[in-house]
Amino acid sequence: MNGSLSRVLTAAAVLLSALSALAATGSAEARTAELTAACPTTGPVTQHFHSGHNGVDIGADVGTPIYAVGDGVVTISGYVGDYGQWIRILHPDGRISEYGHMSRRDVFEGDHVVAGQQIALVGAEGTNVDGPHLHLRIWGDQSTSYGIDPEAYLAERGVVLPCTPGSGPRPKPLVHPAESGRVVSARSADGRLEVFAAGADGVQHAWQQEANGNWSAWEQLGGPGNAELAIASNADGRLEMFALAGDTFQHRWQLSPSGGWSNWETFGGGGRDTAAGVNADGRIEVYASNPSGIFHRYQVAPNGGWSDWEPTGGGPADGRLEMEKSPDGRLEVFALSAGTFQHKYQTAPNGGWSNWDAFGGGGHDLTVDHNADGRLEVFASGPEGVFHKYQTSQSSWSNWEPTGGPADAQLTSARTADGRVEVFAMNGTTAVHAWQTAVNASYGAWSAFGGGGTEVTAVANADGRIEVFGTSRAGTYHRWQTGFSSWSDWVWVNDTAGPALD
């Protein structure tokens, strides 16, 4: 069913690094790894391994979770014509597991995974595909031109197809914070994007009618006008949204995962900006700025009630806020005002916070994202254009580097399907974007992306394609990747103007 992939995407540097890391595990661990495996996904075998079919097909609905069959290092996570989205994992026994046709990938090159960890969702991407399924291959080593029987490989390690997932540990992927601003978007538990935009008459809401699909009409939600918004996911998958404007702070939440929403409830006093993130244990944490500095509030238990508001020991007054997450699950918050840029971070996952540290001079707006290897990347705009700064290790940062770009731009960023960071900048006259030329690499030149506007946010669809929402005094537009390197035109959401933002 699938063409040979042995000549593409060799990822030599990643593979050499993975081999070195796995060699350090020692022969005892390797012998143990040879004897155990985890179920890759639920569903019947629809085509077995044979001389004309290099692998096994497991039939399952689109969106069914796919799990790593063993511990290892991801050497390939990308997109290619006959496979669509695909992943390779190098295991301590020298074998390589390969997964194809996914609708979404949750791990990227260089990631360490454990047996039973969710790595992707079933799809039907690529050529010569007659329905959704997982195509699983097992390679004996890098020099072979044909794989070995996956059913036999798994059976020798205690997994007989068809199987029920659950035979190995399944740590949840890190939940990275969504971009905050006057327009925000996030995925519901079923993969559908939801978007919220705050105009003068309150917050409006639209949602995809199916994952990666078409959009509903805009719905008026009320709430504070011209609010700054933040959105985060509860531990049980219910989205929760926060709206801050002037002397009002309100929130509302889904009543069930991917379901309807509660009414607005008071969340605090007013302020300037807000951001929300999810702790490693699933508790939401909210930061807010006002003229006195920066304060925070957090859930005292996953899906539970809230602490009182607590001061954070300073921070720039009326700062613009964004949050991100380190590879070990610690939240980090960044605060930018006209004259000051500071940040602080949790000293341990779910734990207390450091003091505020100087991070740079002042500016107009910021966006924060994470590289495929987990290192954080920060962009900030000001009168001289857009600058960026990035982690050189988990505890050290580069200097600020100029990138060009428009002055005093609104900024947002998202990650492409193969893990590269893409950043978007919009001011009153222009919109541009730039992207990493390779995973964890430097950026290319800015490229035109549209006319000017007032706000912008970017988010990834369930299949990995980026979707961008831009606002203006006329309404809210969007533009999305039609493939993984091509874009639609700017259009209204569901052919209606939606909320206008000054």
Index terms:
mainly beta; 7-stranded antiparallel beta sheet; 5-stranded antiparallel beta sheet; disordered N terminus
What does the model show?
- With 502 residues, the protein is mostly beta strands.
- The protein contains three helices and 39 strands.
- It has a seven-stranded antiparallel β-sheet. Strands 27, 28, 29, 30 and 31 form a five-stranded antiparallel β-sheet that branches. A four-stranded antiparallel β-sheet has the order 11-12-13-14, with no helix packed on it.
- The termini are far apart.
- 50% of the residues are buried.
What's the structural blueprint in terms of helices and strands?
Layout: H1 12-23, H2 26-35, E1 45-47, E2 56-59, E3 65-67, E4 72-80, E5 84-90, E6 96-102, E7 104-105, E8 112-113, E9 118-121, E10 133-139, H3 150-156, E11 183-187, E12 193-199, E13 202-207, E14 219-222, E15 228-233, E16 239-245, E17 248-253, E18 265-268, E19 273-278, E20 284-290, E21 293-298, E22 310-311, E23 320-325, E24 331-336, E25 341-345, E26 357-360, E27 365-370, E28 376-382, E29 385-393, E30 396-397, E31 401-404, E32 410-415, E33 421-426, E34 430-435, E35 447-451, E36 455-460, E37 466-471, E38 476-480, E39 491-492
Antiparallel strand pairs: 1-2, 2-10, 3-9, 4-5, 4-8, 5-6, 6-10, 7-9, 11-12, 12-13, 13-14, 15-16, 16-17, 17-18, 19-20, 20-21, 21-22, 23-24, 24-25, 25-26, 27-28, 28-29, 29-30, 29-31, 32-33, 33-34, 34-35, 36-37, 37-38, 38-39
